[in-house]
């Protein structure tokens, strides 16, 4: 059977408050890992809307993307999946107390850049630190780069 290759499109939220970044601790096939609030683009959904949705589902925080930090292509070492990640920064909104987090998400946690770097062996992928590093370097691109047509 010939399989048509295509990347898995994902979004990630870089949410910073008072020098700390909002990450999630999640269950994976490799054990407990840290990641940005992130997930897959749903059919018909814009990248910005997907990022807002994923942040709420995984952290119970509302998030409004205001800039694109970067676009990242990462083939997993197992060779079975390539991720195409769109990472956004933006404005943190309200926290929804008592909201149930997505299945597999144990908790949302605020971490300093040093704590994130020190926990690299528990990152879901190398994109976790790369996105934070790019954010800290000031990378911000206007959302006008992205076009969504219904």
Automatic annotation (TrEMBL):
<dbReference type="InterPro" id="IPR000086">
    <property type="entry name" value="NUDIX_hydrolase_dom"/>
</dbReference>
<dbReference type="GO" id="GO:0017111">
    <property type="term" value="F:ribonucleoside triphosphate phosphatase activity"/>
</dbReference>
<dbReference type="InterPro" id="IPR033713">
    <property type="entry name" value="NudJ"/>
</dbReference>
<comment type="subunit">
    <text>Monomer.</text>
</comment>
<dbReference type="GO" id="GO:0017110">
    <property type="term" value="F:nucleoside diphosphate phosphatase activity"/>
</dbReference>
<keyword id="KW-0378">Hydrolase</keyword>
<keyword id="KW-0460">Magnesium</keyword>
<dbReference type="InterPro" id="IPR015797">
    <property type="entry name" value="NUDIX_hydrolase-like_dom_sf"/>
</dbReference>
<dbReference type="Pfam" id="PF00293">
    <property type="entry name" value="NUDIX"/>
</dbReference>
<dbReference type="GO" id="GO:0004787">
    <property type="term" value="F:thiamine diphosphate phosphatase activity"/>
</dbReference>
<protein>
    <recommendedName>
        <fullName>Phosphatase NudJ</fullName>
        <ecNumber>3.6.1.-</ecNumber>
    </recommendedName>
</protein>
<feature type="domain" description="Nudix hydrolase">
    <location>
        <begin position="4"/>
        <end position="133"/>
    </location>
</feature>
<comment type="similarity">
    <text>Belongs to the Nudix hydrolase family. NudJ subfamily.</text>
</comment>
